[in-house]
Structures are given as structure tokens and as C-alpha cells.
Write a structure and sequence with these properties.
The complex is a heterodimer of chains A (239) and B (335). By secondary structure, chain A is of the alpha/beta class. Chain A has a domain of 164 residues: P-loop containing nucleotide triphosphate hydrolases (Rossmann fold). Helix content of chain A is 38%, strand content 26%. Chain A has 10 helices and 10 strands. In chain A, strands 6-7-8-3-9-10 form a 6-stranded mixed sheet, with helices on both faces. Chain A has a 4-stranded antiparallel sheet with strand order 2-1-4-5, covered by helices on one side. The longest helix of chain A is centred in the C-terminal third of the chain and has 16 residues. Chain B is 68% helix and 1% strand. Chain B has a single domain, classed as ABC transporter involved in vitamin B12 uptake, BtuC (Orthogonal Bundle), CATH 1.10.3470. The chains are: A alpha/beta (239), B mainly alpha (335). The interface between A and B is medium-sized, with 26 and 21 residues.
Chain lengths: 239, 335
């Protein structure tokens, strides 16, 4: 193998006349946690939506596990093991917790594997087991984030895209969510994490990209970026 | 229906039936019509729930189903059931063909007229739906002009067509003043299991869960690997098929079909869907029953010319006090 699991090359995408991504390139190697940090509107979410096939790209190419995926419909991309936990969680509010998780396993036929993954998710987030019969919309923000992650785990991902998992949830829960991301990674899951909380993200990730107005302006090992004065000034709020 | 007929019925009825018998009779009629309306309303509400589109062509699709049923009756040379028989087996091919036909046509309509406009402004598919409705209406007019005996050899394309009484209109209650016919029983025998089946499908099956997921958050559904276009297509097939069944039930119950019936009955069904809470499946059934009952009771106790007024007066009142419809709250499931 040796090649990257995900490779985006010079992708451009936009909304009408507005260009959100201006030739962005990035790659994620198997087993890594890579983070994409940047300010609001830099194009972080757009990047993930393009990779997942929700938003079309105008030029460039995206390869997953050596196969070109940027022309594929979203459901075919999920089938290949590229799964996203979207921004704002997007759980199904009027479906039960259990049904939300079942939909994560929508494309799977391996009943034993699904059963194991249910147990795995309930072990990661015992609160979801407790609330399995409750409508997803009745959960707190943090619980909904757990549900969204659990739902994605049910899809049997090889690469997990996570968009702002810390958004709108209490700091205690954020820590718990980030512990879980680390745990999933240690279990062998490759992760591309988009975060506004650059400090947390850089501490968790091995490598990082800094995105500014649709372009990568910095990249490197997360520890190095954490020490980089430009990053410290712009993203870590230090003088 | 002329108002004089109703007046005659009322005058005649009063002499023979007690007040409570009259009421019971109207309840039977109201519920029978209501169940047919409900079945069509489900087609409106399912499609609305999943793509937020009022499929104005749905009523006319229902009309085409009835024309197909009459064509089958003509092709098989079916006549009214003989004395003593409950129903003709000729209705079986109708109950198979009409749902397949209507489901298939509805899928094609989505594929050709609505899917290309999925990301267009909301008004575009709505106008498209009105266009499809006109196309169906004219197909119905042409269809009624076919040189078949059941269509009067095509002499009067636009005229109402007699639908043979393939289900007995004999009173099951024998000598009683209250009438309960086989065709009324048939309405319930067909519609109730279908509604239960639909509810099981939506609640428990993989497709049903996918339908609810798409209705609640299409982007998240795509991120779960759900092929949203296929699920929407399946919804159109199911909704269309229910309309197809309704068309056969309607024809067997009313024994008259005409090319504009899709507008008349479709308007009732659409109103039922809104009354119950558009996008809400039990709401559509409740709305259908409420409208069937209002129609029957107004016909009996006020006057037939006030029936439409009453239906829409109730609709307006409900929407003033419950803008989301009778069952249309946020906690309700929509599909």
C-alpha cells in the first residue's frame, strides 16, 4: 500500500459566482488523524462536503484508496468507507436513537458485524444505550454529537470526516468527544477533523493543514504548527 | 348530484327511518367516502413529506387509474354481477393493474418532471405539477374517446362513463332500513389493511426508515449512504399505487367515472391532507374521514349546495386554530 488513503488535488468548488475552494490539495495517510483548521468561512466545511460528494467540485480530483471518487454520488462514497459526521450533527430528530444508529448501518448486510458495532457504540457512549428509545431531537447537544459519531461508526468507516465536533457543546463534553476520537483512531480508524478550536485539534492530530479563503496556507506536523508563530497569532489567540 | 334528489331522499327517508337510523346511515356513507379520500390523501401527503411538493397531478393520476379499470372491464366484457353473487372476479385484474399502472406512471412523472427540478426554487416543480395535471386531464379526455363499448364507442369523450356494478349493491342488513352494501364493506376491506400495511412499512422496514430519514434531513440521509433519488422514486411509486387502488374502489363504489373526477376528488383529498397536517400519514387518514363525514352530514342535515362550503369552512377554522393541521405538530413523524 503506502499511498495515501485520501488525496485531494487542486480542487475548486463554489456556490454560484462565489469560489469557496481555490485549488485546495490535501492528503490523509492510513491511520492518521489529520486536522484542517481555519477561520469561519475559510472553506473547511465545503472541503468535507466536496469529499463526501454532497457538493460538486468544478475542477481537480479526489482519490480515495487509489480510486477516483469525485464524480461518484454520495451514497457510493459512503459504500467505499468514507463517512462524514456533518457540521451541526444533522441527526434525524424524529427518529429514535436506535433508528438513527440503524440508518448508519443502512448499506451494511453483515448482521453480526452490525451487532458488534452496536455494542461498540454503546460501549463508547453508554448514554445512547440508555436513551435508545428516545427521539433523537430530545437529546442534548452533546448527546446528539455522540449520536452523530455513533451513527457514523455504524457505517463501518475506513476514513471518518468530522466537521466541528466541538461546536455548540459544553467543554466537559468536548473533552469526552475528543477522547473518543482518539480512542477510535487507536482502534485503527483514520480521521480527517475540521475544527475551529485549533488548540484542541492540533493537540489531537498528527498533521494539520491551515485553510485561508479556500487555499491551504500552511501544513505540517501538528506539533510544529502548534509552535508556529503565525498559527499562534491567528488561531490560538496569542499575541 | 342535484339538490332535488337529495331533498327527495330526505323526505322519503324521514318517513321510514328514525333519527338515529338516519344518522347511522350517513355515518356509513361518510366513512366509506372518507376512506377513499384518505387513500388518495396519503399519496399527496407522502410526496409532500419527502420532497415538500404538492403533487397536483395526483388527483388526475387517480382518474387515469379509474379509466384503466373501465378499459379492463370493457376488454374482459365484464357486466354487472348477477343476483345473489357478491362480486365479480373481474375486479381482481383491476386491483392488480391499476396500482402497478399508477405507481409506474407516478415514478415516471417524478423522474421526468420533478427530479430535474430538485434543486430549483420551490415554485418550479409546483408549476411543473400543474402542467402534468393538465397533461393527464387531456389523456383522460382522449382515453374516454376510445372506440370501445364501455366508452360509448368514443362518441362522447367528455361525458361521464357508467362503470359496471361489479360488486353487489344488495343490502347486507337484509330488511333493515339502514343500508350497508358489499361495495361499502369492500371499501373498508381494501383500504384498512393497506393503511396498516403502509404504517408498518414506514415504521419498521429499511425503506420506511430511509423515507423518514430523507424527509427529516436529506443531506444527512445521503451521508448515511441512502440513495435519496431512489427513495423518493419509491415514495412516488407507493403513493401512486395507493391512488390506483383508490381509483378502482371509487369506481366500484360510485359506478360512474369522468375525466374531471381527478380534480373534484383530488381537491377533497388534498384538503384532507392539509386538514390532517400535510406530511403526516395518520393525519391524512383522519382528514379524509373528517371530510367524508362533513360531506355526508351536510348533505343530510343542511343541503348539498352547502357541502363544499362546509368542507372549506372547517378547513379554514382548523388552520386558524391549528396552522399545522390536526395532527401536524413537530413531534409527529412525517414522510
Amino acid at each position: 500500500m503506502g499511498g495515501p488513503l485520501l488525496k485531494a488535488e487542486a480542487i475548486r468548488a463554489g456556490y454560484g459566482p462565489i469560489e469557496a475552494l481555490k485549488g485546495l490539495s490535501l492528503s490523509v495517510a492510513p491511520g492518521e488523524i489529520v486536522t484542517l483548521i481555519g477561520a469561519n468561512g475559510a472553506g473547511k466545511s465545503s472541503t468535507l462536503l466536496c469529499i463526501s460528494g454532497i457538493h460538486p467540485i468544478r475542477s481537480g480530483a479526489i482519490h480515495f484508496d487509489g480510486e477516483r471518487i469525485d464524480k461518484l454520488p454520495a451514497h457510493d462514497i459512503v459504500k467505499r468507507g468514507l463517512v462524514q459526521v456533518p457540521e451541526g450533527r444533522r441527526i434525524f430528530p424524529r427518529l429514535t436513537v436506535l433508528e438513527n444508529l440503524q440508518l448508519g448501518a443502512y448499506l451494511r448486510k453483515d448482521l453480526d458485524g452490525i451487532k458488534n458495532d452496536f455494542e461498540r457504540v454503546f460501549a463508547l457512549f453508554p448514554i445512547l444505550a440508555e436513551r435508545r428509545a428516545q427521539a433523537g431531537g430530545t437529546l442534548s447537544g452533546g448527546e446528539q454529537q455522540m449520536l452523530a459519531i455513533g451513527r457514523a461508526v455504524m457505517s463501518k468507516p475506513r476514513l471518518l470526516l468530522m466537521d466541528e465536533p466541538s461546536m455548540g457543546i459544553a467543554p466537559v463534553l468536548t473533552a469526552k468527544i475528543f477522547d473518543t476520537i482518539r480512542e477510535l483512531n487507536q482502534q485503527g480508524l483514520t480521521i480527517l477533523l475540521v475544527e475551529q478550536n485549533a488548540h484542541l485539534a492540533l493537540q489531537l492530530a498528527q498533521r494539520a493543514y491551515v485553510l485561508e479563503t479556500g487555499q491551504i496556507v500552511l501544513e505540517g506536523p501538528a506539533q510544529e504548527l502548534l509552535a508556529d508563530p503565525r498559527v499562534r497569532k491567528s488561531y490560538l489567540g496569542e499575541e | 348530484m342535484g339538490s332535488e334528489d337529495a331533498e327527495d331522499q330526505r323526505e322519503g327517508g324521514r318517513e321510514l327511518m328514525t333519527d338515529s337510523e338516519v344518522l347511522l346511515q350517513q355515518v356509513i356513507i361518510g366513512l366509506s367516502n372518507g376512506m377513499i379520500i384518505a387513500l388518495i390523501a396519503l399519496g399527496y401527503t407522502m410526496v409532500y413529506g419527502i420532497v415538500e411538493l404538492i403533487n397536483f397531478a395526483h388527483g388526475d393520476l387517480f382518474m387515469l387509474g379509474a379509466f384503466l379499470a373501465l378499459t379492463i372491464a370493457g376488454a374482459l366484457g365484464l357486466d354487472a354481477v348477477s343476483e345473489g353473487a357478491l362480486f365479480s372476479w373481474g375486479i381482481l385484474p383491476m386491483f392488480v393493474a391499476a396500482p402497478i399502472f399508477c405507481g409506474g406512471v407516478n415514478w415516471c412523472v417524478d423522474r421526468l418532471a420533478y427530479r430535474p427540478l430538485r434543486n430549483a426554487p420551490r415554485l418550479a416543480p409546483l408549476v411543473s405539477a400543474i402542467g402534468v395535471s393538465f397533461v393527464f386531464l387531456n389523456i383522460g379526455l382522449l382515453w374516454g374517446g376510445l372506440p370501445m363499448e364501455v366508452f360509448n364507442m368514443g362518441q362522447t369523450a367528455a361525458a361521464p362513463k357508467d362503470f359496471p356494478a361489479l360488486v353487489s349493491n344488495e343490502n347486507l342488513l337484509g330488511e333493515s332500513d339502514i343500508t350497508l352494501t358489499i361495495s361499502q364493506v369492500l371499501v373498508f376491506v381494501i383500504t384498512v389493511p393497506l393503511m396498516i400495511g403502509l404504517s408498518v412499512l414506514v415504521r419498521f422496514t429499511r425503506l420506511g426508515k430511509a423515507m423518514r430519514a430523507v424527509a427529516q434531513n436529506p443531506v444527512a440521509a445521503r451521508l448515511m449512504g441512502i440513495d435519496v433519488d431512489r427513495v423518493i422514486g419509491a415514495t412516488f411509486i407507493i403513493g401512486g399505487a395507493l391512488g390506483g387502488v383508490a381509483s378502482v374502489v371509487y369506481a366500484l363504489y360510485n359506478n360512474t367515472i369522468y375525466f374531471q373526477m381527478g380534480f373534484r376528488v383530488g381537491l377533497d383529498a388534498f384538503t384532507a391532507a392539509v386538514l390532517g397536517g400535510i406530511g403526516n400519514l395518520p393525519g391524512a387518514v383522519l382528514g379524509g374521514l373528517v371530510i367524508g363525514m362533513i360531506r355526508a352530514l351536510t348533505d343530510q342535515y343542511i343541503a348539498t349546495e352547502w357541502t363544499n362550503v362546509m368542507v372549506f369552512a372547517v378547513l379554514i377554522l382548523v388552520l386558524i386554530f391549528r396552522p399545522a393541521g390536526l395532527l401536524g405538530t413537530h413531534a409527529q413523524e412525517k414522510v
